Structures are given as structure tokens and as C-alpha cells.
Predict the structure.
Amino acid sequence: MSIASDLLRGNTDTIILASLVEHDSYGYLINKEIMAKTEAQIELKDATLYSAFRRLEKEGLVTTYWGNEDVGARRRYYSITEKGREAYGQNKAEWQKAKQMIDSLLV
Amino acid sequence: MSIASDLLRGNTDTIILASLVEHDSYGYLINKEIMAKTEAQIELKDATLYSAFRRLEKEGLVTTYWGNEDVGARRRYYSITEKGREAYGQNKAEWQKAKQMIDSLLV
DNA sequence: AAGTATACCTTGACAGGCGAGGTATATTGT
DNA sequence: ACAATATACCTCGCCTGTCAAGGTATACTT
């Protein structure tokens, strides 16, 4: 059984940012990598993924550009901004705290 | 800064069930205890709390009865059912797994 | 020619959180 | 005496994030 989406909610943006910290990437690949790393227990549905991208872009946490593939389907790349790196750090810290707090409530 | 509600979502029902595992309780007290235990970093807004109760009741995870206070405001008590205990165990297990998976994605 | 993989996108429905509003009783402060 | 605060419950309607369902286009395999 894969992870309920309500448990992921609030972390999707952070997860996407995480995959952009090292290098630029694109939607399809990000999704595949997440599935590979979690043995398909976490999967961002593509509608969810793309709506997250719009949100991140609007907030200035990522920028985007079209790749110039001369073969295959076009790719839209995403790049994390400085603001995005900061947000990532904060989100991660908040996640650590939330984890701890929730754990303290679950006997 | 308190914990973003999207990080709690998916855990609110579990948190409520947790506070009913040891003994019956009522909304106002459950809320106070959660705030006390987390130094007010987690707070279920009462609209959230009561809608969660309706949900848990509908799913047969809790039962409810009116307390017979002869003084002060009336209290509606909640009692966890056997089904509720099972759900609690499963939710907790899923939370453990989700934690692990999310952590594996956040570099 | 059909199927699968890669790669993107939009729309509309749904569920949970919660701000804002409401009711009622008891205690504490001035 | 009266106001304020704490206790204790409740509903309505908005907002936001997820995602099923639908769509487009290219390239490779069978």
C-alpha cells in the first residue's frame, strides 16, 4: 500500500525542491526519481506535480526554461532559485519539528 | 511559528484517536492536552476538531455520549471503539513509513 | 499498424482545514 | 453589579491541494 496523499500534503513542494537542489530537472524525471527512491511508495500524480510547479514558479522558488532536445519529446526544465533554496531549508526544518511534535502525540 | 496545517493533515484523526486510547475524553480537553504537550505548536482549530469527530463517528472509530455534569457546561464524551484501535495502529504504522520515505527524499 | 514509453498540459470534482459566527454556563476581577 | 474570561459545544461557507479523466505530440519496439 502506498502512502496516503494526505500524509504527503505539505511536503510535495519540499520534495520537488529537494530534487532540484543538486541540479536542474524536469517533471517526468523528477517523478521517476521519486518513485525509484521510494520503491513507488511515494508517487506524485502528474496533475499534482504540474500544479505544484505553477505554485513554486508563482512564488519565485523555481524558474523554468524549455530544453533544446533535438530528439524526443520536449522537456520543460526547472531551476531552483536562491529564494527556493531558503524556502527548502525552512520547509525541511519545519518538517523536522512537525515530525517530532506528531510523534510526541502518538503513544 | 506553529506547524502548518498541511503537515498535520492526514494525522489529525490519528492524533485524536491517540488521545482516546487511554481513556474517554471530550473535545475541549483533547484540544487543551494537545496544545500542552506540544507547547501550542500543534493546535487543532475547533471547527477542525468537531468535523473530525463527525468523521470518526461515521466511520465507527469512536462512539459518543453526553456527560452528566451537574455543574458547568455540558460535555460530549468520545470513546474509542475496537475498530478505532485497529485504525489507530494502522495509521501509526503508515505514519512511520511515510516519515521514513519523506526523509529519504529530503537531502 | 499498434502499443508502449517519453513528455507535457487543463479542467472540474472532492475532501479537509478553518475563519467567522453562534449558543450557554461558571468563575474571576473590579 | 457587571464585565471579562474560561469552559464547552456547534454550523456555514470559503479556500487550497490532490487527482481522475481527458487531451497533445514524438520516438521506439513489435
